[in-house]
Design a protein that fits this description.
Keywords: Catecholamine metabolism, Cytoplasm, Transferase. Pfam families: Sulfotransfer_1. InterPro entries: P-loop_NTPase, Sulfotransferase_dom. GO terms for molecular function: estrone sulfotransferase activity. The protein has one domain: P-loop containing nucleotide triphosphate hydrolases (Rossmann fold, 3-Layer(aba) Sandwich). The termini are far apart. The strands form two sheets. The chain has a two-stranded antiparallel ribbon. A two-stranded parallel sheet has the order 3-4. Helix 7 crosses helix 8. Strand 1 and strand 2 form a beta hairpin. The chain has helices spanning 16-22, 40-44, 56-69, 79-88, 96-106, 117-122, 124-134, 141-150, 153-157, 160-163, 194-207; strands spanning 2-4, 7-9, 49-53, 112-116. It has eleven helices and four strands, in the order E-E-H-H-E-H-H-H-E-H-H-H-H-H-H. It is mostly helical.
C-alpha cells in the first residue's frame, strides 16, 4: 500500500514493486520481513543487506507504544499481556527471537552486515564508517559528520521525512505516542516490574540458548 496525498492507494500501477522497477541502481529497499520470507533472488544476486537489531526489552516497549498509536493494527491491550504476546511471537512480523536469530545465523554465508541499535547510540560515527566500508564507499570526514548529525534521534524526530507526521491521525495517532518517541537504551526499566523482568529473562534464556548474539541492556 502506498500513501498519496494522505490517502491510501492500492492501485497496481503504484505498487512498491513497480516503483522499484523504475528506480535506477543502486536501489535501497527497507523491509521488516524475517529472513525466511526474503525472496531467494535477493541472495542469489548477492544483494547487500544491513540488519539492525535492538535488545528484546527495549524493542518490546517501543513496539508497544507503536501499537498504541498505529490504528491499522489491533489494540495492544495492557502491557503485562503484551509481554506474553511478545514472548509467544503473537505480534505482527512474528517472533522477535526467530527474526534476530534468522539473520544472525546467515550473516556470514549471505554477507549480511549485522548492526546493533545500542552500538549505533553509543558511537554513531563508528557504525556509519562500518556501513561505508561494507558498501565499498569512501566519503570525506565532513560527509560522515553530516550523516551522523542528520541521523541523530533529535534530528530525525524533527524531520517530517522521518517522524511520519505526514501520515493522517486515523492511521498514526501521534497524540497517543509520537512515532519517534524516546530512542533511548534501557527505557524498558521504566516499564517492566521486577517480577516481569525476571519472568522475561528466564524465557529469553530458553529461546536464545541456541545462539550467542551479543545483545546488551537486558539487565
Amino acid at each position: 500500500m502506498l500513501w498519496t496525498n494522505g490517502r491510501p492507494s492500492n492501485s497496481r500501477e503504484n505498487s512498491g514493486l513497480d516503483l522499484l522497477n523504475k528506480m535506477n541502481p543502486p536501489r535501497l529497499i527497507k523491509t521488516h520481513l524475517p529472513f525466511q520470507l526474503v525472496p531467494l533472488g535477493f541472495w542469489e544476486n548477492k544483494c547487500k543487506a544491513i540488519y539492525v537489531a535492538r535488545n528484546a526489552k527495549d524493542n518490546l516497549v517501543s513496539y508497544y507504544y507503536f501499537d498504541l498509536m498505529n490504528k491499522t493494527q489491533p489494540e495492544p491491550g495492557p502491557f503485562d499481556g503484551y509481554i506474553h504476546k511478545f514472548m509467544r511471537g503473537e505480534l505482527p512480523w512474528g517472533s522477535w527471537y526467530d527474526h534476530v536469530k534468522g539473520y544472525w545465523v546467515e550473516r556470514k554465508e549471505k554477507n549480511i552486515l549485522y548492526l546493533f541499535y545500542e552500538d549505533m547510540k553509543e558511537n554513531p560515527r563508528r557504525e556509519v564508517e562500518r556501513i561505508m566500508r561494507y558498501l565499498d564507499l569512501s566519503v570525506s570526514d565532513d560527509v560522515i559528520n553530516r550523516i551522523v548529525e542528520l541521523t541523530s534521534f533529535k534530528s530525525m524526530k524533527e524531520n517530517p521525512m522521518a517522524n511520519y507526521s505526514c501520515i493522517p491521525s486515523p492511521v498514526f495517532d501521534q497524540s497517543i505516542s509520537p512515532f519517534m518517541r524516546k530512542g533511548e537504551v534501557g527505557d524498558w526499566k521504566n516499564h517492566f516490574t521486577p517480577e516481569q523482568s525476571k519472568m522475561f529473562d528466564e524465557d529469553y534464556e530458553k529461546q536464545m540458548k541456541d545462539v550467542n548474539i551479543p545483545f546488551r541492556s537486558l539487565i
